[in-house]
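stage 2 :: seqdesign
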């Protein structure tokens, strides 16, 4: 399985250093385990603005594929924006995981094309939609490796058919 990340927007202010440290550590973990990372973001800002933030925070090197809706022409949850990122990563949807904080665009959208999707809880809003069920739900990004490792253990477990 491989992993694709998504941004929540421009971050800063109180506590940003802790988030930054966690993000860099996770990026290093993901690169070691999954080999490829990417980013898909709905934004009206230019890619240069986002890339400058990623560079400043030391994350740009971990995200070789970045798809911004402002230049791609479609926004999440349109299937083409996820497929474009996956094509550039050379990864099939079943091999990818999408992490985001919105049910409609970050969970339902990727799931419709066959990706797993993890909902990262937002302290700023609570969404409820019984029709959209994340493959996993985490309160903090540093919980993600445990989810991914658990999925890998399940996939490695032999399946014995009883007749």
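stage 2 :: out
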């Amino acid at each position: 399985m491989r992993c694709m990340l998504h941004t929540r927007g421009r971050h800063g202010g109180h506590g940003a250093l802790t988030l930054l440290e966690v993000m860099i550590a996770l990026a290093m973990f993901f690169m070691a385990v999954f080999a490829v990372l990417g980013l898909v973001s709905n934004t009206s800002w230019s890619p240069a603005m986002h890339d400058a933030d990623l560079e400043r925070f030391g994350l740009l090197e971990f995200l070789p594929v970045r798809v911004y809706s402002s230049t791609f022409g479609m926004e999440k949850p349109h299937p083409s924006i996820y497929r474009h990122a996956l094509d550039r990563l050379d990864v099939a949807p079943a091999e990818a995981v999408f992490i985001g904080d919105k049910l409609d665009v970050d969970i339902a959208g990727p799931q419709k094309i066959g990706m797993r999707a993890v909902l990262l809880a937002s302290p700023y809003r609570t969404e409820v939609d019984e029709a959209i069920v994340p493959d996993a739900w985490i309160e903090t990004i540093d919980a993600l490796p445990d989810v991914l490792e658990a999925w890998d253990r399940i996939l490695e477990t032999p399946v014995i058919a009883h007749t």
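stage 3 :: structure notes
- The radius of gyration is 16 Å.
- Confidence is low (pLDDT under 50) at residues 7-17, 157-163.
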